[in-house]
Amino acid sequence: MKKFTVSKAASKGIVMGKAFIAVQEKLEADTRIIKDSEKDIELAKFKKAVKDSVAEIKVLAEDSEIFAAHLDVAEDAVLADSVETKINDENKNAQLALEEAVAEIVTMFESLDDEYLRERAADIKDVGKRMMCKLKGVKSNPFEGIEEEVIVIAEDLAPSDTANMDFKFIKGFITEAGGVTSHVAIMARSMEIPAFVGVADFRSNITNEDYIILDAIGNEIIVNPNEDTKAEYLKKAEDYKKMKAELESMNDLPATTLDGRTVELFANVGSIADVENAVSRGAEGIGLFRSEFLYMENTKFPTEQEQFDTYKKAIETIKHPMIIRTLDIGGDKELSYYEFDKEENPFLGWRAIRISLDLKDVFKTQLRAILRASAYGDVRIMYPMIISVEEFRAANEVLQECKEELRKDNIPFNDSIQTGIMIETPAGVICAEDLAKEVDFFSIGTNDLTQYLLAVDRGNQKIAKMYNSFHPAVLRAISKVIEAGHKYGKMVGMCGEFASDEKALPILLGMGLDEFSMAATEIAASRYKVRNLKYEDCKELAKAVCSKSTIAEIKALID
Q1: 224 alpha carbon, distance to own chain's centre
Q2: 486 classed as catalytic
Q3: Where would a tag sit more exposed on the chain, N or C end, judged by fewer CB atoms within 10 A?
Q4: What single-letter DSSP state applies at residue 30?
């Protein structure tokens, strides 16, 4: 019997079964350069591959938000235009044109700082793989013929792989690639299948003859357990199912502590499908609507009407407060239809609100769309990367211009729409009191705030271990922002990954955080935790934590 410890589960639960090592075919394009006379033939092949892929994905999208996103990619003109240009202008065959077009778009997404956005590259890869299979006439399914309960072990798994699986027999996933926000992780959570992702070199330690216990509660993999160990984990699995049922029964209950402190549990979203999922998970609002999806999945800057239609549908779906973050793009987030100047350090460059204030027409188009949607529900505006009172005032001046234009055209909107900012820079923290006098709310973006405060590029593997939101500087900064907001009666929320960290939650609660915004799948567990804590105890914990001078001391205290 061997045990492997894993740092974090992608999807919780306890299952067991025989190991099944997936062998996935590599799809390499034909590199042949074509003659001019062959272009129409290759274009026709590509269009048929798109048509057949769209038809398949439409069926899958009826019951899956992930495949709904795939459908958007498959029907998107950006990919099609790129492939057709490579066929027409560069004399590349359909396979090679598709391979190169997918690689270029994937590279753009994988370069993003936002982990959630970065994972969209997996959508594009998977759709490209499906189309390539059509072009090559490949129909292989590595999961055919499974007739016993197994744990699938693979380098990586895409949504199209799961479409080929029989979940009567497939009980869990272990992949060597991916993170907890990757699509295999999202799929596993949505299908309630226990999973570990990013388990490096695991396949080399396993054969198809091994039996595995996947404990995604205690974060262990047990290989070839004895009968007593199997019995022990069967009992643990049953206990977990009972606890999970209890969590789900609380979806309609408020997140109120044992001594009466109530906080709001919101969701972070990037699409209508995400909003629908948030509703089903008991979200009390949307704390972060990532509007950049509308720009990145387009062939041009989206029109006012396109944006309005999306925002209107979102607010009518959630029926609770919805905070839309204005365009947060630039430097590390490129657009296929707009050329950004190359910058030595894009994280300190022309991005977010800086772009919006410079590209005023683009900004006004978005603000007009948001204002129009505010007539249909509690829509709020959040400006990203604000470092000064002057920037906030400048953004609101543009908003005022939009209001005056809409009044002249007799278009309804909420004249008292709330405007707030993301606190994600040291400047935002230091000037928090000045900003709190002017804004309607704060939302702390811990991902960037941690990076900027600690001067640690979390994408740099040599120093990534230094990126830690439990650093005393980060925790004290969060406490300072909450204190400043409350001093002037302003709501303070958090929309970074830290908001759903189970060890951080009592600290943040004790600091007085009003709203926690997170992935919808984390809401039930967070609600359960809040309802089983005492606010007064959390306040003492937060005070003690902020007095510590090292991460180790803080970890020891909360553990």
Answers
A1: 35
A2: no
A3: C
A4: P
Beta carbons of 16 and 213 less than 8 angstroms apart? yes
Amino acid letter for position 53: S
Summarised one tens digit per residue, pLDDT across range 241-297 is: 888 888 878 888 999 999 999 999 999 988 888 899 899 889 999 999 999 888 877
Helices 360-373/304-318 angle, 10° precision: 30
> Is 495 a catalytic site residue?
yes
Query: What fold characterizes domain 36-136?
Result: Enzyme I; Chain A, domain 2 (1.10.274)
Spatial separation of the C-alpha atoms in residues 440 and 318, rounded to whole Å:
21
CATH class belonging to 2-25+141-224: alpha beta
Tokens of 456: 């640690």
pLDDT digits (tens, 9 = 90+) for 33-45: 989 898 999 999 9
pLDDT for the residue numbered 12: 86
Other CB atoms within 10 Å distance of the CB of residue 315: 24
CA distances from 163 to 6, 126, 146, 265 (A): 27, 12, 14, 32
Please identify which of the residues 70, 133, 471, 495 carries the catalytic annotation.
495
Q: What are phi and psi of 382, to 5 degrees?
A: -125, 125
Helix (H, G, I), strand (E, B) or coil at 250: coil
Per-domain residue ranges for the chain?
2-25+141-224, 36-136, 259-558
Tell me which of 133, 183, 402, 538 is the catalytic residue: 183
